[in-house]
Amino acid sequence: MKGTLRRFGYEILLTQYATVGNKTDVYRIWDLCKTLDGKFLNAGYVCMISSLLKLDDMDGTEKTFEEWMPRYKLIDFRVPNLLIRAYCNKGLLKKAEQLVNRMIEKGEKPTLVTWNILAAEYYDNNQMEKAVDTMKKVLMATPQGRKPNPVTLRACLGDLKGKGDVEVAENLIRLLREHSLVSACDSDRLMNYIRNEEPGSDSIAQMLWDHEVVDSETEMQLWI
Predict the structure, then answer these.
(1) DSSP label at 201?
(2) Would the pLDDT of 102 be above 90?
(3) pLDDT value at 105 more than 90
(4) How many Å separate Cα 121 from the centre of its chain?
């Protein structure tokens, strides 16, 4: 079997063994993966770290991540994003922040996914000032065809309105419009909401893509 096909087969086995909770065979297949000729792909590390997270093996996840770090000059941010998300899911926000800062210090640029994860975690922890600041980074990092987390964005706008911090809220809305994330009409409606009007939550949601809401599992796959 050629290396590419063998690698693909091993990745399938990693996922299957993790799904049934067989940690021993996950590590056995991983050892086989690392014997393949040529450079092992980032996708392999994404698969292994995802498998270890299914097994709730955080020690193994961190060790695998540290093994990955020095191997690649071109960083695939899917790999750290998996660990950042795992830290947040376990309430380890400080560790998530430290990892993001570590990647930045290495000269790497966090992705939309990275900032979305952090902004949502700040919101969940009622750290709204940090959530708003991170949401600005989300909007700046959003490529065409993608969108920030609407729940977190809506919460940030609502928090700013409640505090009367109109200028910051308007800056967020301008970023939305500049990056073509809302229409001119919806941008005006959001501005009116911040300044004066009080539309129902459904109306605000409609301005922020509530018709595109996906379940949490699909969301995670989209935002790796």
Answers:
(1) H
(2) yes
(3) yes
(4) 10
Considering just the CA atoms, what is the radius of gyration of the chain in Å? Answer: 20
Stated pTM of the model: 0.85
Distances (CA, A) of 152 to 46, 103, 201: 26, 24, 14
Contact 50, 66 (CB under 8 A): no
Q: Got the DSSP string for the chain?
A: --HHHHHHHHHHHHHHHHHTT-HHHHHHHHHHHTTSSSPPPHHHHHHHHHHHHHTT-HHHHHHHHHHHGGG-SS--THHHHHHHHHHHHTT-HHHHHHHHHHHHHTT----HHHHHHHHHHHHHTT-HHHHHHHHHHHHHH--TT----HHHHHHHHHHHHHHT-HHHHHHHHHHHHHTTSS-HHHHHHHHHHHHT----HHHHHHHTTGGG---HHHHHHHT-
- Residue 164: which region, alpha, beta or left (left: phi > 0; alpha: psi -120 to 50)? left
Residue type at position 141: A
pLDDT at 195 (0 to 100): 87
Question: What's the rounded Cα separation, in Å, for the pair 129 and 73?
Answer: 34
Report CA-CA distances (Å) from 198 to 53, 149, 153, 201, 208. 43, 22, 17, 9, 15
Contact 170, 191 (CB under 8 A): yes
